[in-house]
Specification:
Layout: H1 13-28, H2 35-46, H3 51-58, H4 64-104, H5 121-135, E1 139-140, E2 146-148, H6 149-152, E3 172-173, E4 180-182, H7 187-196, E5 201-210, E6 221-231, H8 236-251, E7 257-262, E8 267-276, H9 287-292, E9 301-310, H10 312-318, E10 326-333, H11 334-342, H12 349-352, H13 355-358
Parallel strand pairs: 1-5
Antiparallel strand pairs: 2-4, 3-4, 5-6, 6-10, 7-8, 8-9, 9-10
This protein binds phenylalanine (PHE).
Phenylalanine binds near residues 187, 226 and 270.
Length: about 350
């Protein structure tokens, strides 16, 4: 640029530069697709070494009376350049936005399904069990997981040397007194309910229980649901009827039930209950399939719970008159029922909370 702009008049070299820079600003920003490039071009006008700085520097060499006007003209050019730049930048942003929106706003696309959680399989099975027993007339009762040794064993007529009370089987909690443990069954709830209510009563009590057991079918914490029905003249027939109704509504109307004599300190008589194998379906009389069934190991039966008539001694311990009242009790492992229902072979899967496992339910 010519810095010896001492020629007076509107057509001096300064005016010429002003005019040509004004022209240049009109076209130079057009068609630039890149913001950095736009800014680089802007700097050729407004930067430290830009043409406008250059023009400013020349003001002192202009005749005094024209300096003010020159200053105004340069300022006007500056504003003009800014305007051209802003317009070009806005156009660039707008084009970008159009491009982005044009690609994604297609209203014919299917919506995105938000990820939803689901209840844990054990919770689902617990709720189903509770539904079945509610229909049969049972209330739901709950109780603490840390409970008295007395409620867990003594009141249920466990003899003091019974192996279930052994340190090997129970988790004891260190307290000053009285003796306390993590309940080994939810029968503690039955004791609590009987101590606080008068008969008749019909309850089911679901919840976590603890035993020192740990392998593919046993977990140190597992879930039980126990039932108790006490009234005048409750008999073993009622127990059988409730078990049949439960098995058929939970596993299907064809599923038969079998009772085998068994021993539990708090019932007399006591029994273990099997259902017909829901995998090889022996009621369909396919003997070969049953013989090969890996779930029931060819027996055609699956053990699901323990039961019996409440022992008169238990009634005495909770202040019920065994001459007047009778009742039955049963207890099942919710984990076992869930494993059967979903053919889960390792109980630990139920407690590891691996999302890949849980997503299947
Ligand atoms: N409480 C027993 C257990 O945990 C189950 C059971 C309940 C058996 C009621 C008979 C009657 O093993």
């Amino acid at each position: 640029m010519n810095s010896s702009a001492d020629t007076p008049g509107a057509s001096g070299p300064l005016e010429a530069t002003l005019a040509s820079e004004r022209e240049r600003a009109v076209t130079v920003f057009q068609g630039i697709q890149d913001e950095a490039e736009l800014r680089r071009v802007r700097a050729t006008f407004l930067g430290g070494k830009g043409s406008i700085k250059d023009l400013m520097k020349q003001i002192p060499s202009v005749e005094k009376e024209r300096r003010k006007e020159m200053g105004r003209s340069i300022n006007a050019l500056k504003q003009w350049v800014e305007q051209q730049f802003d317009t070009a930048l806005a156009a660039l942003h707008h084009a970008r936005l159009e491009q982005a929106l044009g690609a994604s706003v297609d209203i014919t696309w299917p919506g995105r399904t938000p990820a939803t959680g689901a209840l844990h399989p054990l919770t689902q099975v617990t709720q189903e069990l509770v539904d079945v027993f509610s229909t049969l007339g049972f209330d739901v009762a709950e109780g603490p997981q840390v409970d008295l040794y007395e409620y867990n064993f003594d009141k249920l007529a466990f003899p003091p040397d019974h192996p279930a009370t052994d340190m090997q089987d129970s988790f004891f909690v260190r307290t000053d007194a009285p003796k306390t443990l993590l309940r080994t069954h939810t029968s503690t709830i039955q004791v609590r309910e009987m101590l606080s209510r008068k008969p008749p009563l019909a309850i089911v009590s679901p919840g976590a229980v603890y035993r020192r057991d740990d392998d593919v079918t046993h977990s140190p914490m597992f879930m039980q649901l126990e039932g108790l029905w006490v009234d005048k003249k409750v008999s073993f027939t009622h127990l059988r009827g409730v078990l049949d109704a439960f098995a058929q509504s939970f596993f299907g109307p064809e599923v038969g039930v079998r009772l085998r004599p068994s021993y539990f300190p708090f019932v007399e008589p006591g029994a273990e209950v099997d259902i017909a194998c829901i995998f090889c379906k022996p009621w369909e009389r396919n003997a070969k399939r049953t013989a090969q069934c890996r779930i029931c190991k060819g027996s055609g039966w699956l053990e699901i719970l323990g039961c019996g008539m409440v022992h008169p001694e238990v009634f005495e311990h909770v202040g019920y008159d065994p001459e007047q009242y009778s009742g039955f009790a049963f207890g099942l492992g919710i984990d076992r029922i869930a494993m059967l229902r979903y053919q889960i072979t390792d109980i630990r899967l139920l407690y590891e909370n691996d999302v890949r496992f849980l997503e299947q339910f």
